[in-house]
């Protein structure tokens, strides 16, 4: 019989072997199905405008000024989304292989950011959380040109885990990478240009990224993640004095996105209503084993011109118990890749094809018991009332989005937004949706996703919805 010390030694050897294998499994981004979803972790989703934790928080803004800032940012975000498609730039002067993408998540940036740590030793930074982007990138020293940011710009020379991808490395030539080229130092360079003239150019590298909710127990360090270290970044004309996020955490379905690099098929978030308590300004996003995929599921549909975005099939909209007479195909992707219905965590307010939007507004007017109309002074929202929120609950009809397989009824809290406060407790309340175009995308935005657990299941190509109290997730 083996002695107690021998058994203890064998146990320690096996434990050491397990730890070694686990660490090695995290050392390189894996694209094989065998390693999928073997990790789970949670990160903060910080509201960039409303949260005191955000480096872009302005305490002098009133609640209503913050709402107007969200509306303006939403309009600009949608403008770039609906007026352009991805293409390759043919710049014969310097960068013939730069990729041009529809919009920059930094320019009038997405509403949610996250904090994480990069490098060894780790330093804190922030990134836009963008389900419409793929590449993970941030500004890096030395700067050929960099836009203004509040945090110190990351200096890779201080990180022992930073490793440039060389031109003779197979990673530099993978088909799923953005277009790359080599410089005289034989390092693998990338370039991305957005339609709003925001751009980033730099070195592709591998680096350690550390994530965790409030960097508490459960924090995870991810080794050798592929990142773009941007040394030449332009935020676009007229924005040199604006503080902007250091970079982007891409979460679309592209092969270089954060989730794809980890081989994770599942992530979820549950957005808290904004403005109730300071704690409500930070929500949570869960990845891998920590993701919550519950409720009804609707399939993701494909757009060959935009294969990495999250398109859903919206079959119709009901006001009360009656379906609107929206023409068939209104929310379909066209043969040219236009239109369609996208779910986007970064946009503030839902955008609808104008045909559907006009029908929705007119039917709510007809069925509403509130008679005192209002008007958005900036003309962004098309239906407003001077009223009390309790009267909106009582006297306005319910609105339901009918996705394939899921009927998503919007709560009154997600349907109406208060723009102004009146006397006593009444105020100017507007339908929290925006009129789009016929050819552009329609978008389910984050205001309509509050207190709903939204699960992304790319293994089964589906999105799940489950209304719940997001303070309890």
TrEMBL record:
GO terms for cellular component: extracellular region. Residues 112-466 form the Peptidase A1 domain. Pfam families: TAXi_C (PF14541), TAXi_N (PF14543). Keywords: Aspartyl protease, Glycoprotein, Hydrolase, Protease. GO terms for molecular function: aspartic-type endopeptidase activity. GO terms for biological process: proteolysis. The keyword Nucleus does not apply. PROSITE patterns: ASP_PROTEASE, PEPTIDASE_A1. Belongs to the peptidase A1 family. This is Peptidase A1.
